[in-house]
TrEMBL record:
PANTHER family hit by this protein: METHYLTRANSFERASE, RIBOSOMAL RNA LARGE SUBUNIT METHYLTRANSFERASE H
Molecular-function annotations in GO: rRNA (pseudouridine-N3-)-methyltransferase activity
One Pfam family recorded for the sequence: SPOUT_MTase
Alphabetic keyword roster: Cytoplasm, Methyltransferase, rRNA processing, S-adenosyl-L-methionine, Transferase
rRNA processing listed as a keyword: yes
Signal peptide: none
Organism ancestry: Bacteria, Pseudomonadati, Pseudomonadota, Alphaproteobacteria, Rhodobacterales
Protein name (database record): Ribosomal RNA large subunit methyltransferase H
Complex formation: Homodimer.
Family from the record: Belongs to the RNA methyltransferase RlmH family.
Main location: cytoplasm
Catalytic reactions of this protein: pseudouridine(1915) in 23S rRNA + S-adenosyl-L-methionine = N(3)-methylpseudouridine(1915) in 23S rRNA + S-adenosyl-L-homocysteine + H(+)
Function noted in UniProt: Specifically methylates the pseudouridine at position 1915 (m3Psi1915) in 23S rRNA.
Residues involved in S-adenosyl-L-methionine binding: 103, 122-127
């Protein structure tokens, strides 16, 4: 199994970058004994404002062949954290690769969204893509703690 995040925009230094690094490091540490690999991140440059179709082409190159494609989109399903953890465990048990995609300022290309196996919404409000990266990283870590039975997730 591989877990990838392919995202439009580059996270340099700053609070969002620090949070993403921290949650992904915690995920790697907790996930190791659960058979969950560390997350690989691919960033697509958004400086040239090439449009969502061109961004989709670049994002697609980062999606491993055969991977479960999960699009982050405010119109998607709103799973609870335990449901998300159960999906992650299912992909692990089936040795499936999974790739989460996050769009840029103009969102994800409709064609890429339509190709997704699952669309996840973090609520109906639109969040800045850098915060979506932070929240996805946190939910991955939370999922690992749920699978590990650790007390981080108390709900
Ligand atoms: C600033 S948003 C783009 C909004 C854009 N106007 C649209 O219609 O998609 C950038 C990216 O963050 C992610 N995103 C933003 N809000 C989200 C939410 N509530 N749930 C899941 N992903 C979200 C999506 O991947 C989106 O493409």
């Amino acid at each position: 199994m591989r877990i990838d995040i392919a995202a439009v925009g580059r996270l340099k230094t700053g609070p969002e970058a620090a949070l993403v690094a921290d949650y992904l490091q915690r995920f790697a540490r907790t996930g190791r004994s659960l058979g969950l690999p560390a997350v690989s991140m691919t960033e697509i440059d958004d400086r040239r404002a090439v449009g969502t179709a061109a961004e989709a082409e670049l994002l697609s190159r980062a999606i491993p062949a055969g991977a479960v494609l999960v699009a982050m989109d405010e119109r998607g399903d709103q799973p609870g954290s335990p449901d998300f953890a159960a999906r992650l465990a299912g992909w692990r048990d089936q040795a499936r690769d999974v790739c989460f995609v996050i769009g840029g300022a103009d969102g994800l290309d409709p064609g890429l969204r339509a190709r997704a196996d699952w669309q996840i919404s973090l609520g109906r409000m639109v969040w800045p893509h850098l915060l979506v990266r932070v929240m996805l990283a946190e939910q991955l870590y939370r999922a690992a703690t749920i699978l590990a039975g650790s007390p981080y997730h108390r709900a």
